[in-house]
Amino acid sequence: MRFVDEFRDAEKARVLAARIAELCEPGRRYKFMEVCGGHTHTIYKHGLEDYLPETVSLVHGPGCPVCVIPMGRVDDAIAIAEQPDVIMTSFGDMLRVPGGRGSFFDSNAAGADIRMVYSPLDSLKIARANPDKRVVFMAIGMETTAPSTAMTVLRAAAEGLDNFSIFCNHVTIIPAIKAILDSPDMRLDGFIGPGHVSTIVGCRPYEYVSRDYNKPLVCAGFEPLDILQSVYMLMRQVHEGRAEVENQYARVVPWNGNAKALAVMAEVMELRPYFEWRGLGFISQSALQVREKYAAFDAERIFQLPGVRVADPKACQCGEVLKGVLRPWECKVFGTACTPETPIGTCMVSSEGACAAYYNFGRFTRERVKAASR
Amino acid sequence: LGIPGEIVEIMADREDFAMVSVAGVKRAVNIGLLEDEQLRAGDWILIHVGFALSKIDEAEAAAALRMLEGMGQAYADELLALAASDSARIREERSASSGQPLSSPGGAAR
């Protein structure tokens, strides 16, 4: 093992790595999935896999909200943006996500008014300043972001704004983890649970993972040591034959989550019967839609949408990457036809996407490891 | 991304908002999701898309900042997006347009 990217407390990391190695049973391989894109980023950035024994591998999960948006929803959003008097707003990393007919960037170049915002509250501000326009916020994100969107809708309702709506694409991580557990081509020994999502939902919703699937899950923080510590906690559970939900990130994640955020989310949104995830297909009750009570703020009710399912480009293997079946560099177009500048798939767009994270950091780490071991 | 910030003051004139110092820049942050936390000046919070997501202690804030600084461009983009964000100045200048033009790819992540 070479330590190619030294970070603070690298010595503590080596100690943890040694303790992880002590728990490895001879001849056994271990595979853990980090669900959250933020964790993927840290793992590649710091070359954490190089600290781990060769028999312990980390695979990347579907926890990058931009990455799982299917092409058809991008086309729907563009169809809204192209309506008369519409200002479409969204987060920066949504803008380059390709749909079947191009991205927001392409649509903007063709004349649609599309603006990047930092917060849904910015979209609200744009709506106040432009009473003659219809302002739509393309809402994406998991439970981390959905309460902020819900708060924004409540504020719009309180102010009586009639020119603001959201195109709701919020997804919920629990059903996606279940879909991966049910997937026949995936054999996992446990999960590194999301950090920020868990500040909202808490640890309880993961209990089915240990109870029904007999797999351990550890909610983890985002520092390199947090992740190594979580891998150690997972290994210890496997070694002791336990399968429990544990909270490595207790300094930020309350076991029961954030009651206010959950209440606000439930007030404005409800589960959709089903939603398509890029790569995972249709998953029942895996996304949120606006409740009837707030129909006036629901772009899906206000605008006519094509609602057409669009198949991913044949060359793109984001689906396999999102399920952890393929590593980014194993994709046919990785780094050649598909780069962060000209992404074919969503995993290359967002900084939380496994392909972008690997393209920006990981491949250099691997190359340096190879060079160093020659 | 969650960015740590220190509460400078709870805004008396704006329901659900606090003035927060983030990487040396003061801006208003919605603290409505943390109403059970009894936030006060001097408290540290984790900010995500303009909302305080959780209350953290100072050591955690320092650790989070260290990690974010190590992220380089993604953190720089997030700070730029946050600085350009207009939600801080809600009821002023109704006529001013806001939202960033699409000349700068990258930027805010959720």
- By secondary-structure content and strand pairing, the structural class of chain B works out as alpha+beta
What order do the strands of the largest sheet of chain A run in, or round the barrel if closed?
Answer: 2-1-7-8-9
What string gives the helices and strands of chain B in order? EEEEEHH
The N- to C-terminal Cα distance of chain A equals: 13 Å
How much of the polypeptide of chain B forms β-strand, as a percent range?
A: 25-35%
Summarize the entry for a quick read:
Chain A is α/β, with parallel strands linked by helices and 374 residues long. Chain A has helices spanning 10-23, 37-45, 71-81, 104-109, 120-129, 146-159, 173-182, 196-201, 207-213, 224-240, 259-268, 299-302, 318-322, 354-373; strands spanning 30-36, 56-63, 86-90, 113-116, 134-141, 164-170, 190-193, 217-219, 245-247, 269-271, 274-277, 281-284, 288-290.
Outline the structure in words.
- The complex is a heterodimer of chains A (374) and B (110).
- In chain A, 38% of the residues lie in helices and 17% in strands.
- With 374 residues, chain A is α/β, with parallel strands linked by helices.
- Chain A has a five-stranded parallel beta sheet with strand order 2-1-7-8-9.
- Chain A is globular and about 65 Å long.
- Mean pLDDT of chain A is 90; it is low at 1-6.
- In chain B, strand 4 (44-48) and strand 5 (51-56) form a beta hairpin.
- The chains are: A alpha/beta (374), B alpha+beta (110).
- Chains A and B meet through helix 2, helix 4, strand 4, helix 5 and helix 6 of A and strand 5, helix 1 and helix 2 of B.
